[in-house]
Design brief:
By secondary structure, this protein is mainly β. Helices cover about 15% and strands about 35% of the residues. β3 and β4 form a beta hairpin.
Length: about 130
């Protein structure tokens, strides 16, 4: 079993990681590839696992039952931080439609004006 220690210290001059292992495994190779990649992800819960969800794949983020539901083309994930904190972490590709819904504008197909004056966001995956 690989033991990992993570120390957050804003006074370090250079961020770095060292990994000492007996043998390279496919999972470790995937992890190293991920760590060397600059793509931004949210770590979300899915089927009792914590998985990375790339920002580019996210269609919407909405509050549901006191958690955030992150929707991609093929899955729904759970993210367990407040939407107000998450908004500050997202890229400019995301727009807040309300206090409880955020959309990746790259996945918006069109907007529909509702009879009550509200605007419905229609995503490309629906």
């Amino acid at each position: 079993m690989l033991k990992i220690n993570c120390h957050v210290d804003n006074s370090v001059d250079e961020e770095r990681a060292e990994i000492w292992v007996r043998k390279m495994t496919p999972k470790l190779a995937d992890l190293l590839e991920y760590l060397n990649n600059n793509e931004q992800v949210l770590w979300c819960n899915h089927d009792k696992e914590l998985v990375p969800v790339h920002y580019r794949d996210i269609f919407s983020i909405q509050t549901a039952n006191h958690v955030l539901e992150v929707t991609t083309a093929n899955n729904h994930y759970i993210y367990r931080k407040p939407i107000s904190i998450l908004k500050d972490q997202l890229t400019d590709d995301f727009i807040a439609a309300s206090r409880s819904a955020i959309f990746n504008f790259k996945h918006i197909d069109h907007l529909e004006l509702m009879d009550n004056g509200a605007i419905d966001v229609i995503l490309k995956n629906h």
